[in-house]
Design goal:
alpha+beta; 3-stranded mixed sheet; globular
Length: 104
């Protein structure tokens, strides 16, 4: 099973999101072809209602703790409530920043 699939399955089970995108952005970084080390997650869930951004990120990080420990090098999190998603982002998915390098 791919790392992206594991991330998706864990987040679906933990949050039952109304929207979830798990995007492998490793190809935008200085890693070998086919790598699964850099991801962007866009998740919309009721669990994020009335929670500050840092708490939302901590909730996601807790679910993905095993993957963050040894498989994921970078994880861009975009965590939204349903109303935030509909008002701001549903038609305008947030972009990730460009890679600044960082050779290995």
């Amino acid at each position: 099973m791919t790392v992206a699939s594991v991330i998706e399955q864990k987040l679906l089970a933990a949050f039952q999101p109304s929207h979830l995108d798990v995007i492998n952005e490793s190809n935008n970084h200085n890693v070998p072809p086919g790598s699964e080390s850099h991801f962007k997650v866009i998740i919309v869930a009721k669990a994020f209602e009335n929670e500050r951004l840092i708490k939302r990120h901590r909730l996601v990080n807790a679910v993905l703790a095993e993957e963050l420990a040894d498989k994921i090098h970078a994880l861009a999190l975009h965590t939204y409530t349903e109303s935030q998603w509909q008002e701001q982002y549903a038609d305008n998915t947030p972009s990730s920043p460009n890679c600044l390098g960082g050779g290995k």
